[in-house]
Amino acid sequence: MNVPKEMRETYEKISKLLIEYSEKYLNKEYEELCLHALKKLCRKRPSPLKSGRSATWAAGIVYAIGSNNFIFDKNQPIHMTAKDLAAPFEVAASTASSKAAQIKKMLKIDYSHAEWCLPSEAASNPMLWMVSIDGLVFDARMLPVEIQEICYEKGLIPFVPAYKKEP
Asked: Residue 137 carries which DSSP code?
């Protein structure tokens, strides 16, 4: 996904913050999801990134992606408090949370979209596997392989569980 010319400088500033943060506190999967969100925000017309501090946007992106991947849950391999997440950006946790809410709404970030979930956690996220067939909701992992294939082809599930075929 390309970044428009007029947004490249902003992209470079924020991506640098995200990459440095991810290297120190997160991992490559988080970094890739955060950069994906940043690119999408750069491509919005008009881009919301044209106003506000780079650090605030970076904190909001990490907060949005992190909260969607349960970063505040102590049982997760990578976890932290909201205050700890926001502190390196020199942003208040409430500011990061508020910006994250805006980002989640703009990009439609939620638990049921594989696009915003850590790939390593996709298999264990029950929301990614719920599909509606004739108005009834099913766990795609329990459906016959033929139907799993159709669901995968339509982009409803991240991979075909019967084949353990991950993206």
From this structure: E
Specify the amino acid at residue 133. Answer: I
Go through 72-107 and write b for each residue having 16 or more CB atoms within 10 A of its CB, e for each that does not: eeeeeeeebebeebbebbebebebbbebbeebbeeb
Residues of the chain above pLDDT 90, percent? 80
pLDDT computed for residue 102 by the predictor: 97
Name the band, by pLDDT with cuts 50, 70 and 90, for residue 54: very high
One of 3.30.559.30, 3.40.50.150, 3.40.630.30, 1.10.472.10 is the CATH number of 5-110, namely 1.10.472.10
Residue 128: predicted pLDDT: 87
CA distances from 45 to 48, 52, 64 (A): 8, 16, 20
